[in-house]
Design goal:
Elements (H helix, E strand, L loop, with lengths): L2 H8 L4 H22 L7 E3 L5 E3 L6 E6 L4 E6 L3 E7 L5 H7 L2 H9 L3 H19 L16 E7 L5 E8 L1
Antiparallel strand pairs: 1-2, 3-4, 5-7, 6-7
Amino acid sequence: MSEQRREQALKYKYEMGQRTCAAAYLLLCQGLKTEYGITDKPLFEYGEHGKPIIQGHPEIHFNFSHCREAALCVISDRPVGVDVESVRQLKDSLAEYTMNDRELDEIRQAENPALQFTRLWTMKEALLKLTGEGINNHLKDVLDNSDVIFKTVVAPDARYVYTVCRFK
């Protein structure tokens, strides 16, 4: 692992966060080797809102995410955003702060409201990572973007959800 990424991983308070951060980076390394024959440890530059770009390879787009249960990395020849989140107990205040009325109705009517919240949240975060905006004050309206495609997957045990987002 590069020293740059090692320092990033060590910023996590708990060992599990450090491990999954490292795992996401190692998935990137594996993908770069498999798809592009790149064996050097990638170093990053960062966009205005923190989106990483591989130094010397602006043509390679990637994004990664991790949570307690999973690490995820997607590599593409086009911009991409991903998010993976653990399904946790739903906090109404967080849902009301981040979701619009339609999304709140979806959550409240769902068989598993916490799972539905997590599904919508990963979609929002993956889209914001795709565009490079990062978390902003427009969370309620972020999914109104019709120029993107989402692929959302719920883990078989429903402990986590991930979404991959790309432009049409």
